[in-house]
Amino acid sequence: METVGFIGLGNMGGGMSANIQRAGYPMVVYDLREEAALPLLEGGARLANTPAEVAAASDVTFTSLPGPYEVETVSLGASGVLEGIRPGAVYIDLSSSRPTLIREIEPRFRAKGAHVLDAPVSGGKTGAASGNLAVMVGGDREIFDRIKPVLDAFGDKVFYAGEIGAGSVAKLVHNMIGHSVRQAIAEGLTLGVKAGVDPEPLWECVRRGALGRMSFLHEGLVRTMFQGEYEPASFALNLAHKDISLATELAREYDVPMPMSTLAQQISLTAMNRGWGNADSSSTVRLQEEQAGVEVRAPQVDPDRAARFITTHPNAE
Fold first, then answer.
1. What CATH superfamily is the domain 171-312?
2. Numbered ranges of CATH 1.10.1040.10 in the chain
3. Distance CA 22, CA 39 (A)
4. Cα–Cα distance, 33 to 38 (Å, whole number)
5. Helix axis angle, 259-273 relative to 285-292, nearest 10°?
6. Catalytic residues, which ones?
7. pLDDT per residue as tens, the chain (317 positions)
8. CA pair distance 185, 223, nearest whole angstrom
9. The CATH homologous superfamily of the domain defined by 4-163
10. What's 85's DSSP letter?
11. C or N: which end of the chain has fewer Cβ atoms within 10 Å?
12. Could you give the residue range(s) of every CATH 3.40.50.720 domain in the chain?
């Protein structure tokens, strides 16, 4: 069985490394705070003095660190992972970091005959401890397949995202969308409560509707954006524009600031002025594609298979 090195035993790394150890892998560990390693040492892990020492003793070396500065320092700095790694060994960064950085790091390791994957995770401290983590992996597919059992030891949803850096891009996109959605939810709930609806029934109405089922994410964009087709409409843009206009009008009546929603209203108005009123409400994504200079197409994804996900989603009641 491969020896696994783990550097960074904090909120996320502590839980992930413990799950790797529980899966039976011999481990070599390092953290700036030696006390963070104690639970693993009690389980039989060996404590290293430097990241280079971890890498020298390991077939697979993980880092779980706060950000790009720490990743660069630990991977490339004095007594870093690069200094100690052996030919054929694998370095995997689990941190939420800069995609450009891991793409700069990878050739340095390749020159030593070693391999690099980026594999940021989503699920928080609780998920790290329980093993309920999404792991988004970028790098060589053959290396991913080879070490996937180690990833499965701490993540229940391990995805191959693409070439090096793809995992980091996917994680940043995931969190960016999450933060934006939370802001829109906050706007809606404050408006609803100030307009006289109790929080619990308002929350139930939102989570049990199409939004709560995330039907656009799981099925709607597969039929529209992925195909580049917006007719016939499932819900027409002119109706969506009417609804968001009524919501922002209500917000003005109750003095509730709605920055995200007001922007969405203006975007829908721009799309209406393109003559897309009878097209699907998701046709607004075409404006974003135009401005970004890229089309998001995946015609190979089966819309019917995607739709079946909604029927098993916890909120699809």
1. N-(1-d-carboxylethyl)-l-norvaline Dehydrogenase; domain 2 (1.10.1040.10)
2. 171-312
3. 12
4. 10
5. 90
6. 171
7. 899 999 999 999 999 999 999 999 999 999 999 999 999 999 999 999 999 999 999 999 999 999 999 999 999 999 999 999 999 999 999 999 999 999 999 999 999 999 999 999 999 999 999 999 999 999 999 999 999 999 999 999 999 999 999 999 999 999 999 999 999 999 999 999 999 999 999 999 999 998 888 889 988 999 999 999 999 999 999 999 999 999 999 999 999 999 999 999 999 999 999 999 999 999 999 999 999 999 999 999 998 888 776 655 544 44
8. 25
9. NAD(P)-binding Rossmann-like Domain (3.40.50.720)
10. P
11. C
12. 4-163
Tokens 């030891």, located at residue: 153
Q: With contact defined as beta carbons under 8 Å apart, do 51 and 30 qualify? A: yes
Task: Identify the residue whose tokens are 């052996």.
Answer: 86
And the tokens for 89? 């060994």
What global pTM score does this model have?
Answer: 0.92
